[in-house]
Model the fold of this input.
Amino acid sequence: MHAVKPLPFNPTKLRGLSEKLIVSHHENNYGGAVKNLNRTEEELARVSKDTPPLVVAALKERELTFANSATLHELYFGNLGGDGKASSAIEGAVARTYGSFGRWEELFRLTGMGLAGGSGWVVLAWDFQRGEARSYWSGNHTQGCAFGQPLLVLDMYEHAYAIDYGAAAAKYVDAFFQNIQWDEVNRRLESAQRRSA
Done:
């Protein structure tokens, strides 16, 4: 059984993201993904040689959706709670790919805004195939870099911001950037680069 991981920060301390928003997101959306992953795995444990393949395929699709949702939420909450000030390791990694940290941030924000009003994720990942940090769009929980380690995760599903901002997704993205825990992003980057070597 999978368990809900606690928030790694005090939800009353974030700038521009209310405790109500964060707690609701954590308990309902992330908690729901964990609960549904457990239920799906219980159903998969009951599969027998007589189970129709289309039932197994549907369960496996749900398993991937809920597992990825849980993981992406854990990474999202894990990269919040900081002061929003990037440090050298990640700045250098994205500058090598995008020319500058500013250009990377501009494109990351625009990718998020492209998902506003809909649903999805923006993920800065270490792409092991290409040996670089690159941002990717994800329209749902089952799309991602095929051989990548998420470094920074932005949840653009409306549940991540509607309580505080309604449809004003750009204000949410601004608040997200003010609260990034760049030390955690750098830790993920260093881990990925070690495995890449």
In short: The mean pLDDT is 96. Strands lie at 121-127, 132-138, 148-155.
